[in-house]
Amino acid sequence: MVRRRILLVDDDVELCELLADYLSPEGFELESVHDGAHGLERALSQDHGLVLLDVMLPGLSGFEVLRKLREQSRIPVLMLTARGDDVDRIVGLEMGADDYLAKPFNTREMVARIRAILRRVEGPSPDASASAPVVVDDVVLDRSTLRVSRAGEHIPLTSVEFSLLEVLLGTAGQVISREDLCLKVLGRELSPYDRSVDVHVSNLRRKLGKSSDDTERIRTVRGVGYQYARSSRPAEEDA
Amino acid sequence: MRRPRPHLRSLFVRIFLFFWLAMTLIGAAFAVIHLSSRPAWVHKRKLEFITVALRTHGVEAVSRLRQQGPGAAHDWNRALEKRLDVRVHLLHRGASRAGPRRPNQSVVALAAQALREGKTVLRVFSTHECYAVPLSGQGLDGWVVVGELPHRPRLMRYLQPETLPLRMLVVFLVSGLICYLLARYISKPIRRLQLATRKLAQGNLDARVGGAILRRRDETGELGREFDQMADRIQALLDAQGRLLRDISHELRSPLARLSVALGLARQKAGAEAGASLDRIEKEAERLNELIGHLTTLTRLESGADVVEREPIDLKALVEEVGQDTSFEGIPRDRGVEVDVSTPLTVHGNQELLRRALENIVRNGLHYTAASTQVEVRLEGIESDGRRWARITVRDHGPGVPEAVLGDIFRPFFRVADDRGRRSGGSGIGLAISHRAVLLHGGSLSAENAEGGGLRVVVELPLAGPTHAENVHDGVEST
């Protein structure tokens, strides 16, 4: 099954072998590629459910692979960034990575993150309401096609941005805490010093643009979390 | 940059004044020498001309004396005196024969000398020049004409009052200009050297003297070239050191990553009894990870690669976020973080770097503060040196730091002797990272022991506006 196949792009051959050994009893099949160009090619093959992408690669760097990959594919990407490199981490998320893991990493945490991402991607919840599009003002989110449009215009979102918007729209008008967002969108507890949610929110903001009355659609409620603001016009029917 | 005004004791002013003074003194010395020496030199043509004139006058006078008597010669002389202010005496063998006045001793003596030597004799007195011309020709033996030509007193002659102010002005200006250029020529390269030295000392390893100085063939040129060589060498050494550190942390990362995965594998296969040991291995591996992470950050900061990125940063929000994160971390240890943020302030820089810098300082405070106490974080705007700064004060209620080593706590791996910190973690690089990050933002970081115990770390960052670093840069270019 494609979902369980994971592509690892990392130039450390021994690490790849060890990880393959480790992930196999966890139920994942790991394919390893050791350079960027080949990694990009394999990532686009649609044979995998997730890509583990190391930032530091010979030839095509991890960022370049990610940028080229995102031009054609929304496949979930978990970036492996160097420890102590906050900037790489943020850049990776800004370029459309779903989550990041500082390398060297704890294997249990890695499996937890892989599971969280796959769970999110796999599961539009099976209940009936899921298929109905969510409409808030001029933004329409269609769960069945995984498409989002604003005033009829398609907005390309990564899968994590889609989930984030889904949660925000679902609670539109209310404040949702960063902790809840992290749990619902990234599938893990928010830890201190982790700004992943904030980076995803700011990406989403940029893609959605401002609302008709020139205010941010997603407001920051300092010290608490975020709020998807409904337009100040008389509300249409609740989604 | 505003050019530093030459201080009274600066090399420039000293050289300038000394040379100017020297030139003026030389001028004065020439005047004195001129005044004290005998101006014996009279132009030869002037002498010939006066000789001819006096001889002609004398021959006519002798002729009038012989034909019309002494009165006529007398009048002839007087007419000349009236017209030209030249006193003429007519003498024959030492005796005055005609003249408006009686000749004095010196005139008589001069006439005698002229008669002896048979040629014009000149003598210069303070108020006049005296020419004695012996007449020659038929019946003129023994006759001497003496003319007293008035002239100015020597000083006045030398000073020439009509053109004196102009000449003085010319001397003043020309010597001033030359001395100014000379002083500048000497002091300017030194000034440049000083700026380069200062920049190097401030940690800007790219600082070089450069420019025209290096082409000079004098001592300053040599100094400049050697300074640049020294700076090259220092930079190369520090670069090598940084690269080594970077390479080490990078190379350690790969085996550590493999170790972590191998640990996971061991966990999968080992029984429950190995759990405690594996936990321990994991904990130590995590420490190594943290250390390497910090080392990477520090080496990146040292290379200055991240600062290029400058975005406006909402300090208020940043401090609040850091406060929340660290507060969260402190809860299990019964320590807290209290944030006091009054005004919204904006600085320019790299948000992640500044966040990291603040986090490290607050976490350090959290680490040392006593149980059930709060680390107090305070953000305020201040004004100093005519600039507006954001000041962030982080104060803990811990044991503080001995005064003698307060300045050292921002050095990597520095530990206070009786530090109990190693037990509870901390890589020893956190504050060094903060220090470097704050410096890269044009700010300053200092530590002091707070009254009532505990350490107070003060961060000052320049508020949005042209940065200090850019100013310095401009200044060097224009100097």
Write the layout of secondary structure elements.
The complex is a heterodimer of chains A (239) and B (479).
Chain A: E1 5-9, H1 13-23, E2 29-33, H2 36-43, E3 50-54, H3 62-72, E4 77-82, H4 86-94, E5 99-103, H5 107-122, E6 134-136, E7 139-142, E8 147-150, E9 153-155, H6 159-170, E10 175-177, H7 178-186, H8 196-208, E11 218-221, E12 225-228
Helix pairs in contact in A: 2-3, 6-7, 6-8
Chain B: H1 11-36, H2 44-68, H3 70-84, E1 87-92, E2 95-98, H4 105-117, E3 121-124, E4 128-134, E5 143-150, H5 154-159, H6 164-201, H7 219-269, H8 275-303, E6 311-314, H9 315-330, E7 336-341, E8 346-349, H10 351-368, E9 374-384, E10 387-395, H11 430-440, E11 444-449, E12 455-462, H12 468-478
Parallel strand pairs in B: 7-9
Antiparallel strand pairs in B: 1-2, 1-5, 3-4, 4-5, 6-8, 9-10, 10-12, 11-12
Helix pairs in contact in B: 1-6, 2-3, 6-7, 7-8, 8-11, 9-10, 10-11
Protein model, in words:
The complex is a heterodimer of chains A (239) and B (479). With 239 residues, chain A is of the alpha/beta class. Chain A is 37% helix and 21% strand. Chain A has 8 helices and 12 strands. Chain A has a 5-stranded parallel beta sheet with strand order 2-1-3-4-5, sandwiched between helices. A 4-stranded antiparallel beta sheet of chain A has the order 6-7-8-9, with helices on one face. In chain A, α4 links the parallel β4 and β5 (99-103). The longest helix of chain A has 16 residues, at 107-122. Chain A is globular, with a radius of gyration of 18 Å. By secondary structure, chain B is of the alpha+beta class. Chain B is 54% helix and 16% strand. Chain B has helices spanning 11-36, 44-68, 70-84, 105-117, 154-159, 164-201, 219-269, 275-303, 315-330, 351-368, 430-440, 468-478; strands at residues 87-92, 95-98, 121-124, 128-134, 143-150, 311-314, 336-341, 346-349, 374-384, 387-395, 444-449, 455-462. In chain B, strands 2-1-5-4-3 form a 5-stranded antiparallel beta sheet, sandwiched between helices. In chain B, strands 7-9-10-12-11 form a 5-stranded mixed beta sheet. Chain B has a two-stranded antiparallel ribbon with strand order 6-8. In chain B, α6 runs parallel beside α7 (219-269) and α7 (219-269) packs antiparallel against α8. Chain B is rod-shaped. Chains A and B meet through α1 and α4 of A and α7, α8, α9 and α10 of B.
